[in-house]
Design goal:
The complex is a heterodimer. Chain A is mainly alpha-helical. Chain A is built from 21 helices and one strand. In chain A, about 45% of the residues are buried. In chain B, the strands form nine sheets. In chain B, strands 9-11-12-10-13 form a five-stranded mixed beta sheet, with helices on both faces. A four-stranded antiparallel beta sheet of chain B has the order 4-1-8-7. In chain B, strands 3-2-5-6 form a four-stranded antiparallel beta sheet, with no helix packed on it. The two termini of chain B are about 55 Å apart. The relative contact order of chain B is 0.09. The chains are: A mainly alpha, B alpha+beta. Chains A and B meet through strand 1, helix 4, helix 5 and helix 6 of A and strand 26, helix 15, helix 21, strand 29 and helix 23 of B.
Chain lengths: ~350, ~1050
C-alpha cells in the first residue's frame, strides 16, 4: 500500500524552523529525513520514519510554494494565500536571505553574472555548501543587486525597504552590492585571511565617505558608485610624495610626535617614505577601475605586509595612521586638507579593520 | 421588492504578467450580476492597477439578490485578439440582505482561476440598498438568518425551536452536457461553479420561505450538500432547524418582549411535539409559491432549476410517489411530520431523555432520465428514509430525533442514502411559541437531579425495543439507565462525566463483486446490515477497552466503491457517571481442550485487561467502584473508596443489589472461533493511544478539559492510498484501512507536537473511493492547546459544572440576558467559581494578557499603511518581544512553555493582512462572538493539465486547499469578520489522470463568519477575581 497523496494544510501555515533550515541548506527530502533522524527526533516523539518522511515532504512543499513569494518579500507580507504570523514571516525572510560566510567570501566582488553562476559548482565543492544553497544565495545577491542598483537614496534603507531585512542583514547586503558593483578583488590568496565582516566594514566606510551619497544625498546610484570627482582630485595628493621637502617635513613631524610612543619606532622611521608613497600612490591611481579592483590587494601588499614583517602591533598602526593623517595638516604647503581627510579617514578605518594581530 | 446593488472596483495587486513583451498587464474588470454587466476602464501597463471605478449600480429583485452571486472577472485587454481572462471572484451577497449582519463587503479578494489558481488580488466594495418588503406573496426570503452552527448561536437565544426544514434542488451537471465536448475546461469549470452557486442561493431562498412560513426567523444547523450524480444530474440539498432567535443585547434587558406577543397572535395553535412541531394551517405564502413553481415546471428548459415541494410521504405504506398525488395543503402538512433537529447541542432543559442512535440507509439506483417533470424522485427517497428514522425513534419511545444528519455515497449509478440521529424526548415547552421563562420553571420541576435525567431510558422497561441491560441510574438511583449509550449529539454541558474522553473509531472494509445496476444495488443492500453490525461490535469493543460507557457525536459513514464498501464510524467515548461501569472483555476459546490454544487465549485476555487498565489511567477514569470491589473486579482501585462514600454511603444495600444485577453478565464475551474473530481481537489492540499530551475527540468539547488557551490550529489533511496487491481479502483490506487511519492520526500528532498539551477537537474523517483500489481519507479538525496546570481536575468537575449551571439558570430566570451573554460558552466556561477554586495563580493571567496584546497590534496594523514605519517597528518589536517572552517564561511553569512561546511571538509584530481564525467548533476558545455576519458557503473547482509541473498530486491539492482557506479568509475579512466558526469541508472530490498529466478537484466548504473579541479585552464581568490578576499583567505586556 503506497500513499499517492499525502498532505497537511493548516489555516495558519505550519512552519518547522529546523526543516526550513535543512531546506535552505539545500538538502533533498531524503537527506533531510536522515539528518532529522540523527537528531533523535523519533525518540523524543515516538514517531516512525514514515511520519517523518511525510512531514518533511509537507514542509518542503510549503517552502517551495513560499519561495516564489520570498523573492519579493513585500508580497509575502501582503499575500492572502498563506496565513503566517508576522514574526514568522520576518523569520522566513531573514533566514531566506541569510548567507554562509564561506560562500560570500567566494563570490564577494565578483560580477553577479551567468558566468559566475556557472562556476557555482566549484564554489560548492570548495565550500562544501550544497549547490542548491549556493544558487539560492547567489540568486539572492543578484536579485537584491538588480533591485537597488539604480535606485536613489540610501543603499541600506533601500534594501531594507524592498526586502524587509533586519538592519544587520541589510548592511551586509549593501556591502555585497557595493563590492559587486565596483568588482573589488577579494579572492586572492593574500586576502584569504580577511573575513566578510572585515570587507563589509570597509564597504560601509567607503560608502559613507567615498560615494556620491557622501556629498549629495539626492542622486542616482549615490551609494553604489564611487565619487568620480573625488577620485580625480585624489591625484592632487601626489604632492605629498613628489615634493621632497614636503615628504621630509611630513616624516619629521610624524617621527617627532611618535617618538617614545610607538614600539617599532626605528622600523617606522626607516619605512616612512615607503609607506607614505604606497598610500599616496594608491590614492592617485584610484581613478582607474583596475586599481579600484585591486584596492584591497594594494592595502595588504603595500601597507599591511611591510608592517607585519616588522611586527607592528595594531596599536602601532593606529598611532602611526593617526599621526600620519593629522601631521599633514601642519604642512603649510599642503592645501588639500579636506580631500586628505576624506581619503585618509576611510583608509585608516579600513586598515585598522584589516590589520589582524 | 427591488433592491439596489452597488459595486465599486478599487484596485488590484500582484496581478500576473499577461504581456510577455512588456512584463506587464493591461487589466480591466467586468462586473456581472444577473444579466447586467459593467466594465471598468483599462488600466494600462501595471501589475498593481488602480481603477477607482464609479459605483456600478444594479437594480434587481431581491429574489435575484438571494440566488445570484456577484461575478467579478479580471481581464487583460488585448487590442488585436480576444481579451484574456486573468481570473474571477464570486461574491455571495446574502450576508448583506439581513440587517443584523454585515452592512458592507469591502476588502481584498484573491482573483481565482480554475486552471491557474490564485492570480493576484482585487479590492472591491459592495453595498446593498434594500427597500422594505410589504408583499406577503413574495418569492424571496431576505432577512432569514442562516447558521451552520449546530447549537443556538452564542449571541442569540432561542425563543422557539420550530423544527425540521429541508429542501432540494436538482439540475443537469454542466460537466455532462453535450456542450462540454467543445468548450474549454475553464469554461466548463466556471459554468459548474456558477451553477452551483446559483443553485445554493436558490435553495437557501426556498428554505428561507419555509422558515418564514413556519414563523421562524432563522435556520440553525444548516447543512447543505451536493450530490454529484454524474450523468443523472446534480442535486443540491439542505436540511436545518428552524428557530425563532432573539439577539441578546448587552444593554437592552427586554429582548423577548415584542416577539412573543406577535407569535402568539399569528399562531394560536399549540401542537404537542409528537404530532410534529409546527402549526398545521396552510399559509397563503406557501400556496402561492407552490403553484408558481408548478407553473415553472411545464415551462422548463434543460437548464431550468426545479424543485420538489412534496417531500413527505405519510404512513408506512405510502409509495414514493404518493406525495405527487396529494394536494399542496396536505403536502405542507406532511412536511411538518418530521420532528427532527439538526442541532447537536441544546439550551439547558431542552433534552429530557435520550434514547439512542437511530439510523436508516437505503440503496438507490440513479436513473438516467432527465425528466424535469419528475423532481419528486429524490424527495421521495429522502422522505422514505426520514419516515423510517421517525418510526425507529418511536420504537425507542421517543417523539423526536436530535443531532440529525443526512448523507449520500455515490459510485457510478448506485447511491446509498443515509440518515442518522439520536432519538430523544424533548421538553415540549421549547417547541411552542412562548417565552423561555415558562419552560425553565417547568424544567426545574421536571428533571429531578441535574446531570443524569437525559440518560434515563425513555422507553418502557418491559417492552424494550432491543435487548439491553438496565440498571438504576448511578447518579439518582431512581430511574433506569442502559448499560451503554450511543448518541450523535454533543455531550450536554450539564452531563456528569468522569475523566477525559477520547476519539473512538471503528473501521471496516468489505469486498464486493463488481456488478451492474440492480445486481450491484442488491449486493450492496445485502452487505449493509452486516457492516452495520460489525461497525457496532467494533465500537462496543473499543469502548469497553477504553473503560468507558457512552459514545457522543457518533457518525457512521458507509462509502461505496466499485469493488468494495468501507465503513468508518467515529465517536467520542466518555464515562458517564449515571451509567454503570462497563465490564471487561472476556475472551472465550472454542476449543477448550487444546492446551496451547488455551494459553494463547489467556495471554490475549491478559493483554486486553492490561490495555483496559492502562486506558483507565490514561483517561483518568476512576469512578467510585465499591460494587466492583466487592465482587472482585480485576481492577480494584481502593484509593477511590473514600470518595465513593461521599455520594453513595446511604444506600449500600441498593448498591449491592445493583451490582448483582449487572455483575458478571455485563462482561463482554468475545468468542474466538475462527481467524476472523482472531483478527478482530488483534485489531482491537493495534490502536495506539495518542502520545502524551495529546487528546482527541470528534465532538465540540472534550470532557475533562475546559481550560483552553487561544492557541488554535485548524487543518485539513488528505491522504490517497493505492492498495498494491491485487488479491485482496477482507482481512488485508481491513488492515490496510486501519493502518491508513492510524498512520494519519500519528502524522497529525507529530505535526502538531509544538502545541502540546493539546486536544484535537471535532476530528472529522471522510472516506472516499474515487477509483478501484484507491482510498481517499480527508480529515479536518482543530488542535487547541490547553493549560495543563488547570487541567489537573478530577471528578470535581461535574459537580462544579452543575453548580455553575444552576447559577446560570437562576440568572436566566431573573432575566439577566447580560449574564447569559457574558458566559456564552456554556460548553467550556471559565466560571468565576472555578477560577477561585483552582487558579488563583498568575498562570492564566499571562497568556490572557498576551492574547490581548496580539489583538491590539493586529488591529492597529490594519490602519498602518506605511511600510517604513512597519519595518522600523518590526525591528524593534522583535527584539523587545523576545526579551519579553523569556521574561514571562520565567514566571510561567515549564509546562506552559510550549504554547506560551508559540503565542507570544505573533503578538510582537504588525501585519497588514488581518488574521482570520477558522475552526470547526461553534466557538473560538478564549474569545466571545459578538456578531454573526452570515453564512459562508463556497464551492471551488481546480483543474490542471500540468500535474507534474505543479508538484504532482500532493503539490496540486496542497496548493488548492491553501487557496480555498485563503478565499474563505478573504471573504470573512471583507465582511468585517475575524473568524469562521462551524467550518466544515463538506466535499473534497479529487480525480487524477496521471497519464494525461491532469487532475481535477472540487471542494465545498461552509461555516459562519463572525466577529470575535478576546475575553480578556471584554472584561465585562468585574466580579471575576482572575481579572484582577490579569489586568496589571496585561497592562505591563501591552507596553512591550
Amino acid at each position: 500500500m503506497t500513499n499517492d497523496l499525502d498532505i497537511f494544510v493548516g489555516n495558519t501555515t505550519l512552519i518547522d524552523e529546523e526543516v526550513y533550515q535543512l531546506w535552505l541548506d539545500g538538502y533533498s527530502v531524503s537527506d533531510a529525513v536522515s539528518l532529522r533522524l540523527r537528531s533523535g527526533i523519533l525518540e523524543q516523539t515516538g514517531a516512525t520514519v514514515d511520519v517523518l518522511q511525510s512531514d518533511t515532504m509537507d514542509h518542503y512543499r510549503t517552502f517551495h510554494m513560499l519561495e516564489r513569494l520570498l523573492h519579493t518579500p513585500s508580497k509575502l507580507i501582503h499575500q492572502l494565500h498563506f496565513q503566517i504570523p508576522p514574526s514568522r514571516q520576518a523569520m522566513l525572510i531573514e533566514r531566506y536571505y541569510a548567507f554562509d560566510e564561506a560562500f560570500v567570501r567566494e563570490v564577494l566582488g565578483k560580477k553577479l553574472s551567468k558566468g559566475t553562476k556557472k562556476d557555482l559548482d566549484d564554489v560548492s565543492t570548495k565550500t562544501s555548501i550544497t549547490l542548491k544553497s549556493c544558487r539560492r544565495q547567489f540568486d539572492n545577491f543578484k536579485r537584491v543587486f538588480k533591485v537597488v542598483e539604480e535606485m536613489r537614496g540610501s543603499l541600506v534603507e533601500n534594501i531594507q525597504q524592498h526586502f524587509l531585512l533586519s538592519d544587520r542583514l541589510a548592511r551586509d547586503y549593501a556591502a555585497i552590492v557595493f563590492f559587486a558593483n565596483s568588482r573589488f578583488e577579494t579572492g586572492k590568496k593574500k586576502l584569504q585571511f580577511l573575513t566578510f565582516e572585515d570587507f563589509a566594514y570597509c564597504a560601509e566606510q567607503m560608502i559613507q565617505n567615498w560615494t556620491l551619497g557622501a556629498v549629495d544625498s539626492n542622486v542616482d546610484d549615490m551609494d553604489v558608485d564611487l565619487d568620480k570627482e573625488f577620485l580625480q582630485e585624489l591625484k592632487e595628493l601626489k604632492v605629498l610624495i613628489a615634493d621632497k621637502d614636503l615628504l621630509d617635513l611630513h616624516k619629521s613631524l610624524v617621527c617627532t610626535s611618535l617618538r617614545g610612543k610607538i614600539s617599532v619606532y626605528n622600523e617606522m622611521e626607516a619605512n616612512f617614505k615607503n609607506l607614505s608613497r604606497a598610500l599616496v600612490n594608491m590614492a592617485s591611481k584610484l581613478i582607474h577601475t583596475k586599481d579600484v579592483r585591486d584596492f584591497f590587494i594594494d592595502l595588504v601588499e603595500k601597507f599591511i605586509e611591510p608592517c607585519k614583517s616588522d611586527k607592528w602591533t595594531l596599536n602601532d598602526v593606529r598611532l602611526f595612521l593617526t599621526q600620519y593623517t593629522t601631521s599633514a595638516h601642519n604642512l603649510d604647503a599642503f592645501r588639500h586638507q579636506a580631500l586628505w581627510d576624506r581619503y585618509m579617514s576611510t583608509i585608516k578605518s579600513c586598515l585598522l579593520k584589516m590589520y589582524h594581530d | 421588492m427591488p433592491g439596489k446593488l452597488k459595486v465599486k472596483i478599487v484596485a488590484g495587486r500582484h496581478l500576473p504578467v499577461m504581456d510577455r513583451a512588456s512584463d506587464l498587464t493591461d487589466a480591466f474588470v467586468e462586473v456581472k450580476f444577473g444579466n447586467t454587466t459593467f466594465k471598468t476602464d483599462v488600466y494600462p501597463k501595471s501589475l498593481n492597477p488602480q481603477w477607482n471605478s464609479e459605483w456600478f449600480k444594479f437594480e434587481v429583485d431581491d429574489e435575484d439578490l438571494q440566488d445570484e452571486p456577484l461575478q467579478i472577472t479580471v481581464l487583460d485587454h488585448d487590442t488585436y485578439s480576444a481579451n484574456d481572462a486573468i481570473g474571477k471572484v464570486y461574491i455571495d451577497i446574502d450576508p448583506l440582505l439581513y440587517s443584523e449582519a454585515a452592512t458592507v463587503i469591502s476588502g481584498w479578494f484573491p482573483i481565482y482561476d480554475t486552471i491557474h489558481g490564485i492570480r493576484g488580488e482585487i479590492n472591491v466594495v459592495v453595498k446593498v440598498d434594500l427597500f422594505n418588503d410589504l408583499n406577503r406573496f413574495r418569492q424571496s426570503s431576505c432577512g432569514v438568518k442562516f447558521f451552520c452552527t449546530t447549537s443556538i448561536p452564542k449571541c442569540y437565544r432561542a425563543v422557539v425551536i420550530h423544527g425540521f426544514v429541508e429542501e432540494l434542488v436538482v439540475n443537469e451537471d454542466p460537466e455532462y452536457q453535450w456542450i462540454d465536448r467543445i468548450r474549454t475546461p475553464r469554461a466548463s469549470n466556471e459554468a459548474r461553479q456558477r451553477l452551483i452557486s446559483l443553485m445554493s442561493g436558490e435553495l437557501q431562498r426556498k428554505i428561507g420561505l419555509k422558515v418564514l412560513e413556519m414563523r421562524g426567523n432563522a435556520v440553525v444547523g444548516y447543512l447543505q450538500c451536493f450530490d454529484l450524480e454524474g450523468e443523472s444530474g446534480l442535486v443540491v440539498r439542505a436540511i436545518g432547524t428552524v428557530c425563532t432567535l432573539d439577539k441578546i443585547s448587552n444593554t437592552a434587558f427586554l429582548p423577548a418582549c415584542n416577539s412573543p406577543s406577535k407569535e402568539m397572535k399569528e399562531s394560536p395553535l399549540v401542537h404537542p411535539p409528537s404530532h410534529g412541531c409546527r402549526s398545521t394551517h396552510n399559509s397563503p405564502i406557501h400556496t402561492a409559491s407552490g403553484s408558481r413553481l408548478t407553473q415553472n415546471f411545464s415551462l422548463s428548459v434543460p437548464t431550468l432549476i426545479y424543485t420538489g415541494m412534496g417531500s413527505g410521504s405519510a404512513g408506512k405504506e405510502g409509495g414514493p410517489f404518493k406525495a405527487l398525488l396529494r394536494q399542496q395543503t396536505q403536502t405542507a402538512l406532511e412536511q411538518r411530520e418530521f420532528p427532527f433537529f439538526t442541532l447537536t447541542a441544546f439550551p439547558p432543559g431542552f433534552l429530557v431523555h435520550v434514547g439512542g442512535v437511530v439510523s436508516a440507509r437505503s440503496v438507490k439506483l440513479l436513473d438516467r432520465i432527465h425528466n424535469p417533470d419528475e423532481p419528486e424522485t429524490r424527495d421521495a427517497w429522502w422522505a422514505e428514509i426520514r419516515q423510517e428514522i421517525k418510526s425507529h425513534a418511536k420504537a425507542l419511545g421517543c417523539h423526536a430525533v436530535v443531532g440529525y444528519s443526512e448523507s449520500t455515497s455515490i459510485c457510478e449509478e448506485v447511491c446509498i442514502l443515509s440518515a442518522s440521529g439520536t432519538a430523544a424526548v424533548l421538553n415540549p415547552r421549547f417547541l411552542q411559541d412562548g417565552t423561555m421563562e415558562g419552560c425553565l420553571e417547568q424544567r426545574i420541576e421536571e428533571t429531578s437531579p441535574p446531570g443524569c435525567g437525559f440518560f434515563h431510558i425513555p422507553y418502557d422497561e418491559l417492552n424494550m425495543p432491543f435487548p439491553a441491560h438496565l440498571t438504576y441510574c448511578y447518579n439518582c438511583r431512581k430511574q433506569k439507565v442502559p448499560d451503554v449509550l450511543f448518541t450523535t449529539i454533543d455531550l450536554p454541558a450539564e452531563a456528569m462525566v468522569i475523566g477525559k474522553g477520547c476519539l473512538i473509531q471503528a473501521r471496516l472494509c468489505r469486498l464486493k463483486k463488481k456488478a451492474q445496476a440492480e445486481a450491484n444495488a442488491t449486493s450492496i443492500s445485502n452487505l449493509l446490515p452486516f457492516m452495520e453490525y460489525e461497525v457496532h461490535t467494533q465500537l462496543m469493543n473499543k469502548l469497553k477497552l477504553k473503560g468507558m460507557n457512552a459514545l457522543f457525536g457518533l457518525r457512521i459513514q458507509i462509502t461505496v466503491g466499485e469493488n468494495m464498501l468501507m465503513g468508518l464510524a467515529s465517536a467520542t467515548g466518555v464515562y458517564l457517571t449515571a451509567l454503570p461501569t462497563p465490564g471487561g472483555i472476556q475472551i472465550a476459546g472454542k476449543t477448550p481442550n487444546d492446551g496451547a490454544y488455551e494459553q494463547h487465549v489467556s495471554h490475549m485476555q491478559k493483554k486486553i485487561n492490561d490495555t483496559i487498565a492502562k486506558n483507565k489511567e490514561l483517561y483518568e477514569i476512576n469512578p467510585p467502584e465499591i460494587p466492583e470491589e466487592i465482587i472482585g473486579s480485576p481492577f480494584p482501585e481502593p484509593r477511590q473508596r473514600s470518595r465513593l462514600l461521599r455520594s453513595q454511603s446511604e444506600s449500600s444495600d441498593e448498591v449491592m443489589e445493583l451490582d448483582l444485577s449487572h455483575g458478571k453478565k455485563d462482561a463482554f464475551v468475545l468468542e474466538i472461533d475462527d481467524t476472523d474473530a482472531m483478527e478482530d481481537v488483534h485489531s482491537l489492540l493495534t490502536d495506539v493511544p495518542p502520545p502524551p499530551g495529546f487528546y482527541s475527540c470528534n465532538t465540540e468539547i472534550m470532557p475533562g478539559i475546559n481550560n483552553w488557551t487561544s492557541d488554535i490550529q485548524m487543518f485539513t489533511s488528505v491522504r490517497v492510498s493505492r492498495l498494491s496487491n491485487i488479491n485482496l481479502t477482507n482481512q488485508t483490506l481491513n488492515k490496510n484501512f486501519n493502518d491508513l487511519c492510524e498512520n494519519l492520526l500519528k502524522s497529525l500528532y507529530f505535526k502538531l507536537r509544538s502545541m502540546i498539551p493539546c486536544c484535537l477537537c471535532h476530528v472529522n474523517f471522510t472516506v472516499a473511493l474515487p477509483e478501484d483500489e484507491v482510498i481517499q481519507i480527508t480529515v479536518t479538525a482543530v488542535a487547541i492547546t490547553f493549560d495543563k496546570n488547570q487541567a489537573l481536575q478530577t471528578s470535581k468537575v461535574p459537580a462544579e459544572k452543575t453548580l455553575q449551571r444552576a447559577s446560570t439558570d437562576n440568572e436566566e430566570q431573573l432575566q439577566f440576558p447580560l449574564e447569559l451573554c457574558s458566559d456564552p460558552l456554556v460548553s467550556q466556561p471559565f466560571s468565576p467559581a472555578k477560577e477561585v477554586l483552582e487558579n488563583a495563580g498568575s498562570h492564566t493571567g499571562i497568556p490572557a494578557a498576551q492574547r490581548a496584546t496580539s489583538v491590539d497590534y493586529s488591529s492597529f496594523a490594519d490602519r498602518c499603511n506605511s511600510w517604513i514605519e512597519l519595518i522600523k517597528l518590526k525591528a524593534q518589536t522583535i527584539r523587545r518581544g523576545s526579551i519579553k517572552t523569556t521574561a514571562s517564561l520565567d514566571k510561567a511553569s515549564p509546562l506552559a512553555e510550549g504554547h506560551l512561546r508559540h503565542r507570544s511571538v505573533p503578538s510582537c509584530t504588525n501585519s497588514t493582512v488581518s488574521v482570520v481564525k477558522m475552526t470547526p467548533l461553534s466557538f473560538i476558545p478564549g474569545a466571545k462572538i459578538t456578531k454573526y455576519l452570515g453564512i459562508i458557503n463556497m464551492f471551488f473547482i481546480r483543474e490542471t493539465t500540468s500535474l507534474r509541473e505543479e508538484g504532482g498530486v500532493s503539490g496540486f491539492l496542497h496548493a488548492f486547499i491553501a487557496e480555498v482557506f485563503a478565499m474563505v479568509r478573504a471573504h470573512v475579512a471583507a465582511l468585517g469578520g475575524n473568524a469562521v466558526v462551524s467550518y466544515i469541508m463538506k466535499q473534497c472530490v479529487f480525480m487524477e489522470n496521471p497519464n494525461k498529466n491532469q487532475a481535477q478537484c472540487l471542494i465545498n466548504v461552509s461555516g459562519d463568519a463572525v466577529i470575535v473579541v478576546r475575553e480578556s479585552e471584554l472584561e465585562m464581568v468585574p466580579v471575576q477575581p482572575s481579572a484582577a490578576v490579569s489586568q496589571p499583567a496585561s497592562a505591563g505586556d501591552v507596553t512591550t
